[in-house]
Amino acid sequence: MMKKVNFSEYEEKYDERIKERLEKDPGSVDVEMMRENLYGYTFTKAYADGEIPDEFSMDYWEEHQLEIDLDDHEEIDFESMESELDLILEEDEDDSPYFDVSTQEKLILETIDSTGDGKTPETALCVIDVHQEHEYIQRVVRLSVLQLIKQSVANGIDCLELRDYDGRIEKVYFDISRRFEVGY
Question: What is the reported pLDDT for 55?
Fold first, then answer.
């Protein structure tokens, strides 16, 4: 379900304890709660100063999950790694549009996806920072098979033009207007 972001609806909704919940029980956080925290954060002084907390970075959660995985395996057992890889590949065969992501990354992606489809400026995906655009592309559009050929911003909408191996060009639109409203 797509629901454009009305930022004023999220003022004073940011909860600093969200990171702890995402660490200990990510299943207890749903998309609406994540929207409240992500878009509510844009009303803080820290956001105006250009700071983005770890809990809103997909790269943070990817690295965090890697650390957990490494801590869980003191000795490397290549046979069990092979069967774990088979399980991961089987899990990736579901209908998820996301590529190999943690629970927390998936929640952030679903939150961004809840704001639009990114196909037009009117249905742009709402992010709070340009870095989220690149994280999104990496996990959904799979930037590794695409080449960024142009990036342009107009009226708070960032357009990334990507070219695939066949030369086809795809545009993805992101709404970064809030970043401009509070200072960039």
Answer: 92
Q: Distance between CA 82 and CA 85 in Å, rounded? A: 5
Q: How far is CA 10 from CA 27, 36, 40, 67, 135, in A?
A: 21, 5, 5, 33, 23
Tokens 């609806």 appear where?
Answer: 9
Q: Please report where in the chains the tokens 């960032």 appear, as a residue.
A: 158
Phi, psi of 149 (to 5 degrees): -110, -20
The pLDDT tens digits of the residues spanning 138-164 come to 888 765 567 889 999 999 999 999 988
The residue type at 72? D
Beta strand pairing call for 157-164 and 146-154: antiparallel
In this structure, are residues 107 and 119 in contact, taking their beta carbons and an 8 Å threshold? no
Three-state SS at 162: strand
Which tokens sit at 7?
């930022």
Q: How far apart are CA 59 and CA 54, in angstroms?
A: 9
